[in-house]
Amino acid sequence: MSVSRRSLLAAGGVAFSGALGALFTGRAGAARAARQGYGPLLPDPRGLLDLPRGFSYRVLSRAGDPLRSGEGPVPGNFDGMAAFGAGGGRVRLVRNHENRTTAALRVPAVPGLTYDPAALGGCTVLDLDAAGRVTGERVALAGTAVNCAGGPTPWNTWLSCEETEDRAGTAGYTADHGYVFEVDPAAPGRTGAVPLTAMGRFAHEAVAVDPHRGVVYETEDAFVEPFGLFYRFLPARPLAGTGSLRAGGALEALRVPGLADLAVVDEPGAEFPVEWVPVPDPAAAVTPVRLQDFGRRGITHAQKLEGCYWGGSRVHFVSSYARTREGAGADHHGQVWSYDPVRRRLRLDVLFGPAADTGLPGESPDNICPAPDGGLMVCEDGGGAQYVFGVTVDGEVYPVARNAQDVGRPGAPEWGEFAGVAFSPDGGTMYVNAYTPGTTFAVTGPWH
């Protein structure tokens, strides 16, 4: 770089707001983290999920078991998820399956819910009674590809994201992929399998809906150059309910003047003014969106943009990591950003890093959701043992769960990450997926 990071921050109009402090920026921080939260994790005698004392879990679903609907086996590769109230203490979980063409357990191709019969991904729904017992499990979306994360809408549907840009004819697909699909967990047939094409065709990761204005924010998971973009979709019919996003709208991409790569920012609390630039071709008919010509002022990129959710008055999103050896402007273990649409300011809230210090716990944050204490829950997607971490509003980190299925065991799964963390509407139960071996857990205990 020709300028220092601090001079770049000054040129970008940065302000330091006293937001969440850096996580794991030194070993003293790691020591403090061990004393926070709910205490140390205890080994699970069943070898599934390590939790703090006073907490317990229930296995709700396992890949390969029969679906209660009789439609086939439970698909594999559990990923993004959301929890919806169903009245009387009942809950519906809608869960993504990030299946590629090589998946061993596809989402069954149910008539009326299947977009492309050659694609193996999609969503399933679990019905839970007031006691937390599973009373139903069924397909809600099929024939989609690499369904990674997504996000809930204010009208209680789920937006499921395809993390791929494959076109018809690739890998045997009969339709283009790279879209967002709306899923109604209460009545999947009402939404069917209709791509929301105006929201763009790219490697989607997650979305978050502004419940006040109806704007939909989208992350793009691109881990090789050119890196992904952060988008906003301005619906033609904002907040109009189920199916309204099919009416189209305008897609725009984030531009921070003077900041081409979010990775170079390493000061939590740093704020930047934001511009939004129209996407020339959201359908990516010829050129992927992140490669399109946004004009002489350019656009802002970031490596591995992943989790996204709306909290309070801001949208929060994750850059899972950045690596200079792969073309990023700096190294980090992960960033959590937030954007204030009223002030039109972007802020770095949390920094995991530096990436060079592998002795510190926590790396590659992925799915995130609000925690009962007002902080965050973060699913880790890195190397070694995989954790769910909590982050307090003061920026302290604490362990919540560890996937014991891939700890110290020969032949451990390659993708033992956590995904889809979400809380029940009453805040009393945390739901989370182990990606592989596919497992959905319900965790109860003395949540703050």
Textual characterization of the structure:
The chain has one domain (5-444): TolB, C-terminal domain (Neuraminidase, 6 Propeller). It has a 6-stranded antiparallel beta sheet, with helices on one face. Strands 11-12-13-14-16 form a 5-stranded antiparallel beta sheet, with no helix packed on it. The longest helix is centred in the N-terminal third of the chain and has 8 residues, at 27-34. The chain is mainly beta and 448 residues long. The protein is globular, with a radius of gyration of 21 Å. Helices cover 4% and strands 36% of the residues. β25 (418-423) and β26 form a beta hairpin. It has helices spanning 5-11, 27-34, 188-191, and strands spanning 41-42, 49-52, 56-62, 78-85, 91-97, 121-128, 134-144, 147-152, 158-162, 180-183, 204-209, 216-220, 230-235, 249-255, 271-273, 275-278, 305-311, 314-319, 334-340, 345-352, 365-370, 376-380, 387-391, 397-403, 418-423, 429-434, 439-444. It is built from 3 helices and 27 strands. The N and C termini lie far apart (44 Å).
SSE layout:
Blueprint: H1 5-11, H2 27-34, E1 41-42, E2 49-52, E3 56-62, E4 78-85, E5 91-97, E6 121-128, E7 134-144, E8 147-152, E9 158-162, E10 180-183, H3 188-191, E11 204-209, E12 216-220, E13 230-235, E14 249-255, E15 271-273, E16 275-278, E17 305-311, E18 314-319, E19 334-340, E20 345-352, E21 365-370, E22 376-380, E23 387-391, E24 397-403, E25 418-423, E26 429-434, E27 439-444
Antiparallel strand pairs: 1-2, 2-24, 3-27, 4-5, 5-6, 6-7, 8-9, 9-10, 11-12, 12-13, 13-14, 14-16, 15-20, 17-18, 18-19, 19-20, 21-22, 22-23, 23-24, 25-26, 26-27
